[in-house]
Amino acid sequence: MIERTTASSSQIRISTQQQQSASDQAVEAMREIDEVTRQSETSAKRTETIAKELNSLSGNLEKAIEQFKIADQEEEPSSPRVRGDHRYAEIQEREAVAVGQMNR
User: What residue ranges do the domains of the chain occupy?
Assistant: First the structure.
């Protein structure tokens, strides 16, 4: 009987140690999950900030590009950038002559 009691006591001690170890691992896993969650939150906030900055920059870029857009056909013919304008045709003709001279 003493041997069975000793064996049972030993088994209870081993089981208790295993449960303590499992409990410690669960607590550590919860800490890691908490840390990863905090990192994810921080990353999400950074991503949101960067997205807002990129949106603002794209708006600024669009405004800057407006200066360099070729005029639409609806512009007045007095604009030298309109393809139908005689000045545009003259420039194209000069370029063609210059290219022709370079090919000789």
Answer: 2-66+77-102
